UniProtKB/TrEMBL annotation:
<keyword id="KW-0804">Transcription</keyword>
<feature type="domain" description="HTH araC/xylS-type">
    <location>
        <begin position="8"/>
        <end position="106"/>
    </location>
</feature>
<dbReference type="GO" id="GO:0043565">
    <property type="term" value="F:sequence-specific DNA binding"/>
</dbReference>
<dbReference type="InterPro" id="IPR018062">
    <property type="entry name" value="HTH_AraC-typ_CS"/>
</dbReference>
<keyword id="KW-0238">DNA-binding</keyword>
<dbReference type="InterPro" id="IPR009057">
    <property type="entry name" value="Homeodomain-like_sf"/>
</dbReference>
<dbReference type="InterPro" id="IPR050959">
    <property type="entry name" value="MarA-like"/>
</dbReference>
<dbReference type="InterPro" id="IPR020449">
    <property type="entry name" value="Tscrpt_reg_AraC-type_HTH"/>
</dbReference>
<protein>
    <submittedName>
        <fullName>AraC family transcriptional regulator</fullName>
    </submittedName>
</protein>
<keyword id="KW-0805">Transcription regulation</keyword>
<dbReference type="InterPro" id="IPR018060">
    <property type="entry name" value="HTH_AraC"/>
</dbReference>
<dbReference type="InterPro" id="IPR029442">
    <property type="entry name" value="GyrI-like"/>
</dbReference>
<dbReference type="Pfam" id="PF06445">
    <property type="entry name" value="GyrI-like"/>
</dbReference>
<dbReference type="InterPro" id="IPR011256">
    <property type="entry name" value="Reg_factor_effector_dom_sf"/>
</dbReference>
<dbReference type="Pfam" id="PF12833">
    <property type="entry name" value="HTH_18"/>
</dbReference>
<dbReference type="InterPro" id="IPR010499">
    <property type="entry name" value="AraC_E-bd"/>
</dbReference>
<dbReference type="GO" id="GO:0003700">
    <property type="term" value="F:DNA-binding transcription factor activity"/>
</dbReference>
Length: 285
């Protein structure tokens, strides 16, 4: 349960410092996790990014203060971290559907996002199929792109990236390079950027040998891996598996994620089949 307690400690820290500048590095230190893994864990368990949570909570408190006091909108904007009243009004309208002036007049409804409390489900009714693999260092090769994430994501994302790489033949070339223990193509996130709400997303293949000039390489060090078998159509089965791993398996098995990207191995030829079988490789310590 240490993981859950650490996450709650980080959430409590955010709540105690909502009116101050916050960084993902400061917050993640409260959970004894790297910024990347804290953000990833938080997103999996809550379906929102840390930045989205802070923004929603600040605008919830701002709305409550707006309708219960006579504070000026310009002062409210400054108090909740907005440089101008215009920026505050734009964010306020996006969350609540009305402007601050309209909310003060009682026009429309306020969207309230309450303080978050992390809970885990230790059901154990449905078994999770996994194996433990101790691996020496290995290499993956492929392509990567900075992709948006979070509730305010804009622009082409991960699915569009896969579509382009399928269309231009990159995926076929990577399949030809597969010669390692991971039998399918790999999707993985690295280098989370909290300010931009983006990650570097890789489409890759495990490959022992020279790296073709058109591809980049990523070297994984020796590590212990928990390999979870995922059955069902992608992406639904993948999303459900991540939630169970972080809310059930990790809290009850004494491991924490290592500071390495998690690997999604797409092994089944038909990813949308009810009987599709793929894998999640989670490095642990």
């Amino acid at each position: 349960m240490a993981l859950v307690e650490s996450l709650q400690k980080a959430i409590d820290y955010m709540e105690e410092h909502l009116l101050k500048p916050l960084t993902i590095e400061e917050i993640s230190r409260q959970a004894n996790l790297s910024a990347f893994h804290f953000q990833r864990t938080f997103l999996i368990l809550t379906d929102i990014t840390v930045g989205d949570y802070i923004r929603r909570r600040r605008l919830t408190l701002a709305a409550q203060e707006l309708i219960s006091t006579g504070i000026k909108i310009i002062d409210l904007a400054c108090k909740y971290g907005y440089e101008t009243p215009e920026a505050f009004t734009k964010a306020f309208r996006k969350q609540h559907g009305v402007t601050p002036s309209e909310a003060r007049k009682g026009i429309g409804n306020i969207q309230s996002y309450n303080r978050l409390s992390i809970q885990v489900t230790l059901k154990g009714a449905e078994p999770m199929k996994y194996r433990i693999v101790n691996r020496e260092a290995f290499q993956v090769v492929g392509v990567k792109r900075e992709c948006p994430c979070g509730a305010n994501a804009e622009g082409p994302g991960i699915s569009e990236f896969w579509g382009e790489m399928n269309a231009n033949g990159t995926v076929d070339k990577l399949i030809q390079l597969l010669n390692g223990e991971i039998k399918g193509l790999i999707g993985m996130n690295d280098n989370y950027n909290a300010k931009k709400n983006t990650v570097d997303y890789w489409i890759a293949a495990e490959h022992a040998g020279d790296v073709p000039a058109e591809f980049l390489s990523f070297e994984f060090p020796a590590a212990k891996w928990i390999v979870f078998e995922i059955e069902g159509p992608i992406p639904t089965a993948l999303v459900n598996a991540y939630k169970r791993i972080y809310s059930e398996w990790l809290p009850s098995n004494g491991y924490v994620p290592a500071e390495l990207p998690t690997i999604e191995a797409y092994i089944s030829p038909d990813l949308h089949s009810l009987h599709s079988r793929n894998e999640i490789w989670l490095a642990v310590k």
